[in-house]
Every structure is written in C-alpha cells, then in structure tokens.
Amino acid sequence: MGDTPSRKITVSNHTEPLEFAAQSSSLLETLEQANIEVPYQCREGFCGACRAKLESGEVVYNQEPLAFVRDGEVLLCCTKPLTDIKLTLI
C-alpha cells in the first residue's frame, strides 16, 4: 500500500536526530550507518554488549533476546523503533 513511515532516533550527545528507514534491520545498523560508535559483539541478542537506555518511545524486538536486559534498556542489535525514540548509549 504505502511506504512505512520512518522513525526519528535521537541519541544523547548527538545533535541531529537520525532517521530509521524501513529497510534497516536494527537500531545498531542505523547507528553504524551514521558513524556512531556502539559496542557490540554477537548482533543477535545473546551477549548484551549493545545495551542502551530507552529514554522515550517504543521499540519491538526482531527476536526475543537471551541477554539480560534491565527495565528501561534495549539491545540495539535486535530492535526496531515503533515510534520516534530517544536513546542514551551506555
């Protein structure tokens, strides 16, 4: 029908919000394309290295992560935004 709307990603310590395009597989991929360094290892939700604090907005997991995730945190490697979001990188 129509194009999937893009979502705005605001990252603390970065002035310009990013756009999450429908073809991106995860928040981690979007941040990498914007040359924002994020620690990661497995890219599949196993290790928890790419944790970030979700300050506002909603996300959905591509697959349920096995790594421990605290309330208010997300794993960037296996997450997509449902709404505009604000993140603080840990």
TrEMBL record:
2Fe-2S ferredoxin-type domain location is 7-90
Alphabetized SUPFAM superfamilies for the sequence: 2Fe-2S ferredoxin-like (SSF54292)
For whether the record's keyword set contains Electron transport, the answer is: yes
PROSITE patterns named among the record's database cross-references: 2FE2S_FER_1, 2FE2S_FER_2
MF terms (GO), sorted A to Z: 2 iron, 2 sulfur cluster binding; metal ion binding
Q: Which Pfam families match?
A: Fer2
**Which of UniProt's keywords are assigned here?**
2Fe-2S, Electron transport, Iron, Iron-sulfur, Metal-binding, Transport, Ubiquinone
Name the domain of life this protein comes from: Bacteria
The cofactors it requires, by name, are: [2Fe-2S] cluster
Keyword Iron-sulfur found? yes
Q: Which Gene3D superfamilies does the annotation name?
A: 3.10.20.30
- What's this protein's family per the entry? Belongs to the 2Fe2S plant-type ferredoxin family.
State what protein this is by name. Ferredoxin
